[in-house]
Amino acid sequence: MDSFGSDFSSGAAGSGKMDPGTIMEQVKVQIAVANAQELLQRMTDKCFKKCVGKPGGSLDNSEQKCIAMCMDRYMDAWNTVSRAYNSRLQRERARI
Amino acid sequence: MDTQGVTADPQLQQFIEVESQKQRFQQLVHQMTDVCWEKCMDKPGPKLDSRTETCFVNCVERFIDTSQFILNRLEQTQRGRGSLSESMSD
């Protein structure tokens, strides 16, 4: 990986931070963070809708239990959708 | 300094293409999970029962079918069948 960095960083102030390998790793991390945030945002939205009725002074026990279950079900749903979509893509590619 | 080095780097180019494609996949999964949750999920239980799971799978398939249908029909419409509203009266 270092050999790829040499062209790129020769013009930079020799800081080494500009090498493509580092950039790629940083980008991957940022993408992973963005995906996690998106997942959490949608999960929060769905589970709030399903589990919290008229908002009281705090989340009662039943609401908390519901939210916990909802989180797990949302992950199950996400994984099911991911698998189904992947299968469909592979089927489509096989047709071509 | 070779300023063209950034975009001309084939390794970086390929990386961008691969990651972009992965992201398109992820985004669609987020979107379909969202839409299909509304259609398939009643009250969240202790596990995903098989009927609900089947609903999600069907939902994904029908969503993609819908997307393809729309693209095909749009293409047909533009191939000289006049305006969109004309072809809708079929």
TrEMBL record, chain A:
Gene3D superfamilies membership: Mitochondrial import inner membrane translocase subunit tim13 like domains (1.10.287.810)
Primary site of residence: mitochondrion
All residue ranges annotated as the Tim10-like domain in the record: 26-86
InterPro entries: Tim10-like, Tim10-like_dom_sf
Alphabetically ordered keywords of this record: Chaperone, Disulfide bond, Membrane, Mitochondrion, Mitochondrion inner membrane, Protein transport, Translocation, Transport
Taxonomy, superkingdom: Eukaryota
Compartmental location: Mitochondrion inner membrane
UniProt key word Protein transport: yes
TM regions (residue ranges): none
Topology in the lipid bilayer: Peripheral membrane protein
Pfam families to which the protein is assigned, alphabetical: zf-Tim10_DDP
Quaternary data: Heterohexamer.
Role: Mitochondrial intermembrane chaperone that participates in the import and insertion of some multi-pass transmembrane proteins into the mitochondrial inner membrane. Also required for the transfer of beta-barrel precursors from the TOM complex to the sorting and assembly machinery (SAM complex) of the outer membrane. Acts as a chaperone-like protein that protects the hydrophobic precursors from aggregation and guide them through the mitochondrial intermembrane space.
Family in the record: Belongs to the small Tim family.
Record comment regarding domains: The twin CX3C motif contains 4 conserved Cys residues that form 2 disulfide bonds in the mitochondrial intermembrane space.
Stated name of the protein: Mitochondrial import inner membrane translocase subunit
Source organism of the structure: Huso huso (Beluga)
Source organism phylogeny: Eukaryota, Metazoa, Chordata, Craniata, Vertebrata
Automatic annotation (TrEMBL), chain B:
Pfam families according to UniProt: zf-Tim10_DDP (PF02953)
Compartment list: Mitochondrion inner membrane
Molecular-function GO term, any one: metal ion binding
Residue stretches making up the Tim10-like domain: 14-76
Membrane topology value: Peripheral membrane protein
Keyword Magnesium: no
A biological process from GO: protein transport
Keywords: Chaperone, Disulfide bond, Membrane, Metal-binding, Mitochondrion, Mitochondrion inner membrane, Protein transport, Translocation, Transport, Zinc
Any one cellular-component term (Gene Ontology): mitochondrial inner membrane
Quaternary structure (record): Heterohexamer; composed of 3 copies of TIMM8A and 3 copies of TIMM13, named soluble 70 kDa complex. Associates with the TIM22 complex, whose core is composed of TIMM22.
Function: Mitochondrial intermembrane chaperone that participates in the import and insertion of some multi-pass transmembrane proteins into the mitochondrial inner membrane. Also required for the transfer of beta-barrel precursors from the TOM complex to the sorting and assembly machinery (SAM complex) of the outer membrane. Acts as a chaperone-like protein that protects the hydrophobic precursors from aggregation and guide them through the mitochondrial intermembrane space.
Domain observations: The twin CX3C motif contains 4 conserved Cys residues that form 2 disulfide bonds in the mitochondrial intermembrane space.
Family: Belongs to the small Tim family.
Protein name (Swiss-Prot/TrEMBL): Mitochondrial import inner membrane translocase subunit
Organism: Acipenser ruthenus
